[in-house]
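In this section we walk through a basic example: taking a raw amino acid sequence and producing a predicted 3D structure, encoded as discrete structure tokens. The instruction is simple. Fold the sequence below.
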Amino acid sequence: MFKSIGRFFWRHKFKVFFSWFTFGVISTSVSSYYYTKHQLIPRFRKIHAPLTKHLPAVIADLELLASQSPFAATNRLNNADSLISRYLSWRGKVSRPPAQNRQVFDKVQATNPQWQANDNQLQKMVADPLLQQVETDWLKELAGFDHWDFSVNPNSQEFFQSLSGLNNLGRIAALAALPHPDFNELHNWALLHLIKETNSGRATEGFKVFRQIATLCHSTGILFGQLTAAAMLLEEHEFLKNTPQHPIRLIDVKVIKAYQRASWFWLVLANYVGIHELPVEVVKHIKPEAGACSSLWEWSSRFAAYPDFFLPKAPLEMKFAREFERSRAFFERVAKVCKVHFPVDTLQQTPENLNPLLAEPITALPQSQADLLRMAKLINVSRIPFARRILGVLILSVATPDYFNAYEEK
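The resulting token sequence is shown next.
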């Protein structure tokens, strides 16, 4: 009996192989479709449940900012990047400003490393003769600018060019380590200038420069920038809490807190818009004054996952073209409203010659993204039908922290 079965299989080995192969492909396709649709997508949708829960509070913040925004809209005609880049270093990029001015700036801070949080060290630094040698007058020149767009900076342009040689997996890793100006450093420059001006009896001028720097940080289109701007507005209250007459009109703390929460809220939408339609009440507030420009750079790392993982289509593979187009349209709409020159070609599907199955051209990836680097060297999952859908949804869901903590604590 067993010999007969063996002879049958041997005689029809090609038919048997083809039948089992076909059965395996169909089973894998159906299983992947079911797993993606009934396991991953519901889990991904569940991540955004807090938006429904907190939507009334979000709308209240956006309405408040529509009437009392801490930062007025500008024409974005004069970019401050050419001036700021002379003095500011970058995160993720070896780029140092002029040495003489920089050495004194670093030395003053190194002597009192906790000066921002420790009153004793702050008083010691204020009395330090070396403080007067820190040249901060360049900050006064920022009054002539109405925005700061560092996407035109040579560091940014060099980074954008490096993306053109990466596939989507490489872009995700590269954008996750996006080089950007050191906002903490600019914040420190602003604080030192304010202290110097106040000590010299020019508090009004010092606070005007301080507010201008906060305004420029707001205009950058990156979350770091808007959170720095909010922190500076709150610091104004701290500096002037015991001063009967304020040298500058303070922004209501309630408005600043709404601006902070809204800045985090807009970041949530990076993934949300691919799965859901945006509420009309949110769409009408896509304006810089409502904090809507907070996350253009952060969104890019999420949207970069879409094309290679969700656009290619094999038979029985779930379609995501509609979700992708919705996400891209949203990204481009916000970029246009915010007038930030971000290269939208990062949202394009990788050309075939740059997206091989095994040999990934991603040697430019930072070592901080070692896991993705190892995965990419092993195999290009975005070229494998069904598996790419699963990994794509996992990337988007795992990389979506709970940004509603601010509303939970409200």
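Looking at the output, two observations stand out. The two ends are 76 Å apart (CA to CA). The chain has a mean pLDDT of 77. In the next section we compare this with other chains.
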